[in-house]
């Protein structure tokens, strides 16, 4: 023992890593919460049996509430398209409220003897909302024909377990930070 008093005890390792660990947990929890709140995209897949004189495809999306029965004398599907951007989202619309999703024609990959498989990812969706998709085929001479089949899909939100894990990490991180800050010694008084 010296005249100045007992030497200070070394800080246990748990006390030295508590605050950095708390910061890592807080950052991880925030990341899990923030990055997983985006909705999962909807992927539309289709296959063709053959593609004789097909230049490519367009994909149209509407919402069930926007769909209405065609009045007598209305333009057939595939006609009545406008080139305006009424939604202000870079897409063009037509008379039945559908929006063209692809900015460029999806080029045909098949031939007169073989078809091909296609996929389009629609990331601009709102969780819980139902969308209706319809494919339009463009021939080599530019004739557009909307196929009669329509597909409905509902956009899913982020998985609940990611949100719960994020909240748990945030809670543990806050608890550890509080403990670390309450155990840290204050300023050492000068003699």
Would you summarize the structure shown here?
The protein is α+β, with helices and mostly antiparallel strands and 191 residues long. Helices cover 25% and strands 24% of the residues.
Provide structural commentary.
- With 191 residues, the chain is α+β, with helices and mostly antiparallel strands.
- It folds into two domains: 13-37 and 159-183; 42-68 and 76-154, Immunoglobulin-like.
- The chain has two helices and seven strands, in the order H-E-E-E-E-E-E-E-H.
- It has helices spanning 13-35, 160-183; strands spanning 42-47, 54-62, 99-100, 106-107, 117-122, 130-139, 144-154.
- The strands form two sheets. Strands 2, 3, 4, 6 and 7 form a five-stranded antiparallel sheet that branches.
- Helix 1 (13-35) packs antiparallel against helix 2.
- The longest helix has 24 residues, at 160-183.
- The two termini are 19 Å apart.
What is the element layout, followed by pairings?
Layout: H1 13-35, E1 42-47, E2 54-62, E3 99-100, E4 106-107, E5 117-122, E6 130-139, E7 144-154, H2 160-183
Antiparallel strand pairs: 1-5, 2-3, 2-4, 2-6, 6-7
Helix pairs in contact: 1-2
Notable characteristics:
5-stranded antiparallel beta sheet, 2 domains, alpha+beta, Immunoglobulin-like, 191 residues, elongated, two-stranded antiparallel sheet
The appropriate CATH architecture of the largest domain is Sandwich
H/E topology pattern: HEEEEEEEH
If helices are DSSP runs of H or I spanning 4 or more residues, what is the number of helices? Answer: 2
Rg, nearest Å: 30 Å
Q: Domains counted in the coordinates: how many?
A: 2
- List low-confidence stretches: 66-91
- Let me know the average pLDDT: 73
The profile of the biggest β sheet is:
5 strands, antiparallel
* % residues in beta strands: 15-25%
Q: What distance separates the N and C termini?
A: 19 Å
- How many E-type strands? 7
Q: In CATH terms, what is the fold-level topology of the largest domain?
A: Immunoglobulin-like
Structural class: alpha+beta
CATH C-level of the largest domain: Mainly Beta
């Amino acid at each position: 023992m010296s005249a100045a008093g007992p030497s200070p005890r070394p800080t246990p390792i748990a006390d030295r890593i508590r605050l950095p660990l708390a910061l890592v947990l807080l950052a991880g929890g925030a990341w899990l919460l923030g990055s997983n709140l985006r909705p999962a995209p909807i992927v539309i897949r289709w296959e063709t049996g053959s593609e004789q004189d097909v230049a490519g495809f367009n994909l149209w999306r509407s919402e069930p509430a926007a769909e209405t029965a065609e009045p007598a004398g209305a333009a057939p599907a595939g006609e009545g398209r406008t080139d305006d951007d009424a939604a202000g989202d870079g897409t063009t619309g037509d008379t039945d409220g559908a929006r063209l999703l692809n900015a460029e024609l999806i080029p045909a990959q098949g031939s007169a003897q073989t078809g091909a498989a296609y996929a389009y990812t629609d990331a601009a969706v709102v969780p819980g909302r139902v969308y209706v998709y319809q494919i339009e085929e463009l021939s080599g001479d530019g004739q557009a024909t909307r196929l009669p089949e329509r597909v409905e899909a509902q956009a899913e939100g982020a998985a609940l377990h990611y949100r719960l894990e994020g909240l748990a990490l945030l809670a543990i991180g806050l608890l550890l930070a509080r403990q670390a800050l309450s155990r840290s010694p204050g300023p050492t008084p000068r003699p």
